[in-house]
Design brief:
Length: about 110
């Protein structure tokens, strides 16, 4: 598969391959405050709103969450992966996102 970087494809999506979007954000859980979830969505949309298109087909989303194991297992502050997915999908979906709707996501 080809790996296209984001900056090259603001006017049109790559015909084949991947579109890579990177965000250096601390994930938030579904149980987090509305303010924290909105912050994540808005930070993601700062990037996706620069794209002049929406993807209309099925997509695969890959989330890479880099976290030290000590923080993950010895702290109750780190959210579970299943809880951080929805705020991320909300951020990439809709008029300022890259997807029309998160129902397009077939694989995570």
């Amino acid at each position: 598969m080809y790996n296209y970087n984001f900056e090259k494809y603001t006017d049109r999506p790559p015909e084949f391959g991947e579109l890579t979007l990177s965000f250096s954000l601390q994930p938030v859980s579904l149980q987090s405050s509305s303010r924290k979830k909105e912050f994540i969505k808005n930070e993601i949309r700062k990037t996706t709103s620069k794209l002049k298109y929406l993807l209309s087909g099925d997509v695969k989303v890959e989330i890479q969450w880099i976290l030290h194991e000590q923080e993950r297992y010895e702290s109750g502050e780190s959210p579970d992966i299943d809880n951080i997915i929805k705020p991320i999908l909300d951020g990439i979906s809709g008029p300022n996102g890259i997807l029309i709707d998160d129902c397009q996501v077939q694989t995570i």
